[in-house]
């Protein structure tokens, strides 16, 4: 089934046109907040160019819930001071964080308790895990802000797109969790998740299937593809089967 989405400016109309068993049109506007959420945190989404062509992506939903001056989306693979002075300035500020998991990342909730400067800006990379890794490590700007991660055991509600592990979250879910922590307001997370839940519900009611994580499929012998011959990719599969972070 081919899914085509039309994304209109400010998301005043967000439709999915789906042939066969899918509805002709679905509007998610009733699930958006009546007015953009009031937040003090500035959010920068660094989006891999490949995400722009994805139909069921979460960033448009996220942007529709937040004030335009608080949520900025920058698309590209490579960023530098010459190409983007604004982003360079943001990355150099002491109150900017970047949400990216790793051994050097601090737990966000614990960090804000001990930080002498309360964070005013958070950067999140939007893309597949391999795309996000490429952007993070090949752009020196993104290693200037303090690196933080979310400490959570919840599973993603973005069930119509396959995730590498059971603990991986979509960009919208990461932003929702981070903003609720930084703003100290759980209502923000509930509000941001509402359109995502509606999107998945509509799709599942009209032919879409729940996508289990690669980790789950491998552990339960359900992975539909032959194991890769490439040693690096095979090693990744083995780590997923043993619940090792990659």
TrEMBL record:
It catalyses: a uridine in tRNA + S-adenosyl-L-methionine = a 3-[(3S)-3-amino-3-carboxypropyl]uridine in tRNA + S-methyl-5'-thioadenosine + H(+). Keywords: S-adenosyl-L-methionine, Transferase, tRNA processing. InterPro entries: DTW, DTWD2/TAPT. The keyword DNA-binding does not apply. It comes from Canis lupus familiaris (Dog). SMART domains: DTW. It comes from the Eukaryota. Transmembrane segments: none annotated. The keyword Mitochondrion does not apply. Coiled coil: none annotated. Belongs to the TDD superfamily. DTWD2 family. Signal peptide: none annotated. Its EC number is 2.5.1.25. Residues 17-208 form the DTW domain. One of its GO terms (biological process) is tRNA processing. This is tRNA-uridine aminocarboxypropyltransferase. It is an enzyme of class 2 (transferase). It holds the Pfam family DTW. One of its GO terms (molecular function) is tRNA-uridine aminocarboxypropyltransferase activity.
């Amino acid at each position: 089934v081919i899914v085509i989405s039309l994304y209109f400016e400010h998301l005043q109309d967000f439709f999915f046109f789906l042939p066969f068993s899918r509805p002709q049109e679905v509007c998610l506007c009733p699930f958006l907040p009546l007015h953009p959420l009031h937040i003090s945190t500035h959010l920068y989404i660094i989006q891999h160019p490949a995400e722009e062509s994805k139909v069921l992506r979460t960033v448009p939903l996220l942007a529709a819930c937040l004030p335009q001056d608080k949520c900025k989306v920058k698309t590209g693979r490579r960023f530098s001071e010459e190409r983007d002075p604004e982003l360079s300035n943001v990355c150099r500020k002491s109150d900017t964080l970047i949400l990216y998991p790793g051994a050097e990342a601090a737990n966000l909730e614990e960090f804000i308790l001990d930080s002498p400067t309360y964070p005013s800006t958070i950067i999140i990379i939007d893309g597949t895990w391999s795309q996000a890794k490429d952007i993070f490590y090949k752009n020196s700007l993104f290693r200037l802000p303090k690196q933080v991660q979310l400490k959570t055991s919840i599973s993603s509600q973005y069930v119509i797109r396959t995730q590498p592990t059971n603990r991986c979250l979509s960009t919208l879910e990461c932003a929702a969790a981070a903003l609720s922590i930084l703003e100290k307001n759980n209502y923000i997370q509930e509000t941001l998740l509402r359109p995502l839940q509606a999107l998945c519900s509509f799709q599942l009611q009209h032919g879409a299937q729940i996508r289990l994580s690669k980790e789950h499929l491998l552990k339960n012998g359900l992975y539909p593809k032959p194991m890769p011959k490439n040693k690096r990719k095979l090693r990744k599969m083995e780590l997923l089967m043993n619940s090792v972070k990659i």
